[in-house]
């Protein structure tokens, strides 16, 4: 039996659950949600051509995930990997694109580090999140560099309704515990929301003995503290002035082979912005946002020249100005926008260049013509390192009937190499100042079926990325440009009701490979998916879910030594409504204690139990 056939058999529970869900459609209700990320204009997703998912706060909690990254792994077309437990380096792959080809926004502001281009999803507390929008497919025509595979936009909680408090606490395996509390109010002309959370875990050993260089036989713990706020005031019905911010600090132990001994890393992410939303005329709304985000990483390190420990430091600061204008007309909705981004890097490592500035203007348009929907975007930007770049996108949707809709999108993308890729001085050669910027072309087409309370989508996609940047495992992992990376695949997604049962599932079949060699891109599977079944019975709610992926490799060479086998893990959840505003829950992850790898030679959590208690309500 071939390895690919074996992976399909191991994922068969997901395939069967998804097939059963599609075949037994019954009555249910699926409510549309307005989304912003797809066009930078709030729009009903049912009218868009874009491939978008939304995770609400309640849905995030229902996943049983300990971090946002783990929760995003339940989203169709998304894979997640992490080098061990909580707080460790993590990557998110949307439609098989590289991790630093996914743009992460928090309330419209860029988050993450300019040094490696990634975002630590463990640093964004789930308790602070109102909802998350995930846009699959290139969006450089709206957001510029990094939006090659897609965009993840996180919306933090806003004040609304009668003043009330909320709180939750959880305890589980590895002495993991957390508390979170907050206040929300939105009466008259003023809205306010504040939140606080703290989480600790003794953790488990990150590395396996097979990781001979880094292995240490110890637990690797984790601490995190966060605070967030949102305050705004309305001047009449047409004008709003607000300020919002997020601060997160985490401390995580990691393995370094004893050099230095028992090392820790401290990461801090902060984001603050001031915005003014004004209805200039009946048809013209303007939003001006000025903000700054900062990513700081300070870690215990070892100097192999002096054989002395020291503290390494990598700090990224991003100053941002966004001006979005929405204009409604008889000829559709128009977007006119301008952006300014100033990125600077401060580090104990040496960078020949430690800053760059990006300026851009964006135009967008969308309109409906009977059963037809058209949308288009164009972005022209000037990067201080790589010059001018123009990207565009066009989308089309056609509704055959009330139940059936066809969608198609085509666009171009752009991704500037990170500062680490270009200039990082690690004591020997580990960067490449001759790297070219990545440029991509993509196309997707899909069918949506919405009937009898069921929503089912099948999307096929192709993304060609010229000068794709990868780490050369045969040359000290120095970054290099491939001639072309190519990702071809499709995702099937469905959700609805079968009698009293809530069912959902997704299955992605893709081929993310180096166009020249035919080898798989690192840590991405050809086949992966999720499935979930749940039911509410009076004051009880239960859910059973599964998540799995096929064979992957930890290097671009696809060597046997770096092969990671396929896996399926299962979870169970049970909630009980104690009273009007009180709820208790039990969650079991990895029910069958399955051993599997997301990163070669790094452990993942075995069977884990968590109990929680939450309160939400009671006005003052």
TrEMBL record:
<dbReference type="Pfam" id="PF00593">
    <property type="entry name" value="TonB_dep_Rec_b-barrel"/>
</dbReference>
<feature type="domain" description="TonB-dependent receptor-like beta-barrel">
    <location>
        <begin position="173"/>
        <end position="591"/>
    </location>
</feature>
<keyword id="KW-0406">Ion transport</keyword>
<keyword id="KW-0812">Transmembrane</keyword>
<dbReference type="InterPro" id="IPR036942">
    <property type="entry name" value="Beta-barrel_TonB_sf"/>
</dbReference>
<dbReference type="InterPro" id="IPR039426">
    <property type="entry name" value="TonB-dep_rcpt-like"/>
</dbReference>
<comment type="similarity">
    <text>Belongs to the TonB-dependent receptor family.</text>
</comment>
<keyword id="KW-0798">TonB box</keyword>
<keyword id="KW-1134">Transmembrane beta strand</keyword>
<protein>
    <submittedName>
        <fullName>TonB-dependent vitamin B12 receptor</fullName>
    </submittedName>
</protein>
<feature type="signal peptide">
    <location>
        <begin position="1"/>
        <end position="25"/>
    </location>
</feature>
<keyword id="KW-0675">Receptor</keyword>
<dbReference type="InterPro" id="IPR037066">
    <property type="entry name" value="Plug_dom_sf"/>
</dbReference>
<feature type="domain" description="TonB-dependent receptor plug">
    <location>
        <begin position="48"/>
        <end position="151"/>
    </location>
</feature>
<dbReference type="Pfam" id="PF07715">
    <property type="entry name" value="Plug"/>
</dbReference>
<keyword id="KW-0998">Cell outer membrane</keyword>
<dbReference type="InterPro" id="IPR000531">
    <property type="entry name" value="Beta-barrel_TonB"/>
</dbReference>
<keyword id="KW-0813">Transport</keyword>
<keyword id="KW-0472">Membrane</keyword>
<dbReference type="InterPro" id="IPR012910">
    <property type="entry name" value="Plug_dom"/>
</dbReference>
<keyword id="KW-0732">Signal</keyword>
